[in-house]
Fold:
Amino acid sequence: MLPYIRLGPFLLQTSGLALLVGVWVGLTMNEKEARRLKLQPDLVYNLVFYGLIAGLIGARLAYAARYLNAYLQNPLSLLALNPNTLSAIDGVLIGILAAFIYGQRKRLALRPTLDGLAPGLAVFMISLGISHLLNGDAYGAPTTLPWRIFLWGEYRHPTQVYEILAALVVLWVVLSRPFGSSGSGLNFLFVVALSAGARLFLEAFRGDSLIWPGGIRTAQVVSLIVIIISLWLMRAWSRSQIQPQAHTVEVAS
Amino acid sequence: MNLDSFLKDNRRWTALTLAVLAVGILWTFASRAPVAANTGGAPPPSPREGFSAPDFTLDLLDGGQVTLSDLRGKAVLINFWATWCPPCRAEMPAIEKVYRSFKPLGLEVLAVNLTDQDNEAEIAAFIQELGLTFPIPLDRSGQVSARYTLRGLPSTFFVDQQGVIRSVVVGGPMSEALIQSRVEDLLKETQ
Structure:
């Protein structure tokens, strides 16, 4: 665990750095995949970029809306460079919405674009695991297994390492393009289903689960729903497969 | 590997979906969290969210002592700082403002000074200069900052009425809105 590096007077958050590197490598891989799918790489790049910017701004505004009183008294705090005042889930939803609107305006075909994003998503999941390892988040339940790690006062499952290994497997699968390179959107859905499957399995070893009555772990239920929706969509999309030429991008004038 | 043909076989795909659903439900039930994890009393002490704040007893700058566990029942903001740390100094007025606003509602602030790396005369002068009214515990041995595994200054721990850390902010200066939002969360839980 190495959550911070001191650089003179500055304290660099290594987990944030890992996520930034993940986004950068993911964007590079998305560009390559976009070229392979005959999409315009700069449009796919912009799609993610604008999604991230909108997500960050949305996350801060959503946080401020939750604590409206505090921000009305100190409106300049909206501009504070502090990642602690971001509402993550709202930011993700707003980012996805902004990317979707951008894609619609630029007439990016949905399914090939999603396939173009699949490798980047898989890389980002690896960087998420690394960021958890660096700051000790997503920690495991206590265990006596030989590969346990000492974290937060106890010997625990190295769930962050499990998470990284699972994400590496997902990346390997997505790079093998199990549903071909036609831009059917199936590779993206498969990445989502596999990532949700990994979470469903690995959540059992976590020590920080959000738990419902009866001991049911919330993340497992959500993951199972995501898997079933992904499988259902894969079936539906495979029935209406589009031809490779049909998704050539038209740029809005 | 090409799963496309597998996907087009209706029966096989339906069987796979049902199998995934069944295994997923079974695994979810089999890996339910033990009841003790949910209701087994206070979590062990550790300096992170969801764990009990490590207890300490320290001398105060203006005399007397404070013990963290004696403040059980109050929301507590523990801020680690030193006079030589510019962001620590910069955020003190915001902490003071929030302290004055929320003290009547049950907030306590412990601004733990890393006295093993500081100077008591300078601490006193700084407190007087800013007119800070919250208690200043002095960590003369450095043991408390070691227990909280500080990696940077300032570091702030927001502790609820059960003595559990609800959030940690490393680095600063914290904005007044950030401090107020975390304190509001603590006091909501207290009610």
